[in-house]
Amino acid sequence: MPRGLSEPVIAYMTDVVGYLEANGKYSRIDDASLHMLARQLDVFYCAAAAVNVEGLMVYDDKQKLIANPKIFIMNQAETMCVKVMKEYGLMAKARKELGGMAASMKKSPLEQFMDK
Questions:
Q1: H helical segments located in the chain
Q2: N or C, which terminus of the chain has less Cβ within 10 Å?
Q3: Is the full-model pTM beyond 0.90?
């Protein structure tokens, strides 16, 4: 796991690794992909936290009201995360195609992370 990640991202990635191990998929995944996913989730999480504080609109250096640039950062990070998560069966549709999750897991790691 990369260093310097926020606590919710660490908890989420721990769930992801557990899910992959429990479903026999961990051995097929390279660590670089998991590190990329962790970093992009952290970027998303930090940008979302900043938008929650700053709001959807901010003032630029000319005091003109503009859309918060961190929204763009959030969207880019989310797109990268979804690409990686689809590949490894961490999204609902991909889980169905790859054989599903363990019956005991009611929500995917992503759904649990988004609930926080």
A1: 7-22, 31-54, 69-87, 92-97, 109-115
A2: C
A3: no
